[in-house]
Specification:
- It is a single chain.
- The chain is mainly β.
- It is built from six helices and 33 strands.
Length: about 400
């Protein structure tokens, strides 16, 4: 069974299809190949909240923006309108089931021809969601049509350079000198799992099996330990960790003393503790390590030989910070574009000054929100403890101005 993952409205994350499970064991994996004789190609990507967005062609139409995601198998198309416009033959109706008491989601399974740069994959297994239940576009602030993962990574040596936002695809037969520290991984359900170590109050140091998930924006999500829910430190912050197929994904955020991958160590790391039913989770998996960690390295994925090579970049030593305003946002594509507050955390600075769910953000520090990316707005809201931010919102046919004083709450 393969997980599709989902988080929406996250400041830390897109576990974009973690809540879906569907069986594709009988579908043969299809490969991408260069169709012009070349052995490698470099593309440039958009980076939003450490998520990699690349242009993808489907059935010779596009390009469509997709999120590159090691935690996804097969390709997921989240925009229902594409199924008809792409004229996918023989797509059959399926039901995708999920964690807990959940009836499932209607979708269609078919095959498509998918192009990335000069590489093409024929008969690629593709899921089309029947309804737009994963509004990824609002999370990243640009139109996103789906997610692409295993079939792409399994076809090439894939180098991701977060520093210059470049993606290099290299044919397996080309000899390449790999740079960085080698971290072995095991493919389980066509997804890479690594061994890492965390140190946490109450349990000391412990080794974990974690899904390596470049499509999840958090640092680490801790799920199970010894067959039960992962124990939490004494001090946690209750939070909405996102919205999944079953509704809001609630849980806690806390700090762990350290996280170690290979010879690389991070201290004072933010960790998510989702409130999942333990009986619905994979017992062999303890955690999910995401792009807030991976984005601190330039990485090379070698699926053929079961390893990732990591070399730290300029982001390596950045502190791990949670939103200090207590605001969750969603961007509606225009025209006109709008940035809407979707949730206010109780007793947060935003709550204390009277900001409300449904308020439309119009200006920040006297500058139009249209002049900021969502990344830039998120950076402002976690800039510094005690930092003042002037926020203007549109509510009830009038503008209101609020003075936020950021507070480090975790």
């Amino acid at each position: 069974m393969n997980g599709l993952k989902n988080q929406i409205f996250f400041t830390k994350a897109c576990c974009f299809l973690l809540l879906l499970l569907v069986s594709f064991n009988k579908i043969a994996a299809q490969q991408f190949k260069f169709n012009n004789g070349r052995k490698q190609q470099t593309l440039y990507f958009h980076l939003v909240k450490n998520l990699i967005i690349i242009p993808v062609y489907v059935n010779e139409k596009g390009p469509f923006d997709f999120i590159l995601d090691t935690g996804v198998n097969p390709i997921i198309i989240t925009d229902p309108s594409l199924k008809e416009s792409l004229k996918v033959p023989y797509a059959r109706a399926i039901k995708i089931t999920g964690y807990g008491d959940f009836e499932g989601v209607d979708a269609f399974l078919g095959t498509t021809t998918v192009g990335v740069g000069d590489a093409t994959g024929d008969h690629i297994p593709t899921i089309f969601l029947k309804d737009d239940i994963l509004p990824l576009s609002g999370y990243v602030g640009r139109k996103v049509y789906g997610l692409i993962g295993y079939n792409f990574f399994n076809s090439f040596l894939v180098k991701v350079n977060y520093s210059n936002k470049s993606l290099k695809m290299i044919s397996p037969e080309k000899k390449v000198k790999l740079k960085g520290e080698k971290i072995p991984f095991t493919l389980i359900d066509n997804k890479p799992y690594i061994s890492l170590q965390v140190e946490q109050e109450g349990i000391g140091k412990t080794s974990l099996m974690a899904l390596l998930d470049c499509g999840a924006g958090h640092a680490i999500s801790l799920e199970t330990l010894d067959g039960v829910s992962f124990p939490k430190p004494k001090f946690t912050l209750t939070a909405n960790l996102g919205n999944g197929l079953t509704g809001a994904v609630n849980g806690q955020i806390a700090r762990i003393s350290s996280l170690t991958i290979g010879s690389f160590n991070f201290n004072d790391v933010l960790a998510n503790y989702p409130n999942y039913r333990v009986d619905s989770l994979k017992k062999s998996r303890n955690a999910n390590v995401g792009a807030e960690i991976l984005g601190r390295f330039n990485t090379t994925y070698d699926y053929q030989n079961g390893a990732i090579y990591i070399k730290k970049n300029e982001n390596f030593s950045k502190p791990f910070e949670h939103d200090m305003a207590g605001i969750e946002m969603y961007s509606e594509n225009g025209p006109p574009s709008r940035t809407i507050i979707t949730r206010i955390e109780p007793q947060s600075p935003a709550d204390l000054v009277g900001l409300k769910q449904g308020d439309e953000l119009t200006r920040i520090n006297f500058k139009s929100v249209d002049d900021y990316s969502l990344d830039e707005i998120a950076s402002i809201f976690k800039a510094k403890n005690g930092y003042s931010v002037i926020v203007e919102v549109w509510r009830d046919k009038s503008f209101q101005i609020k003075l936020l004083k950021l507070k480090k709450r975790i």
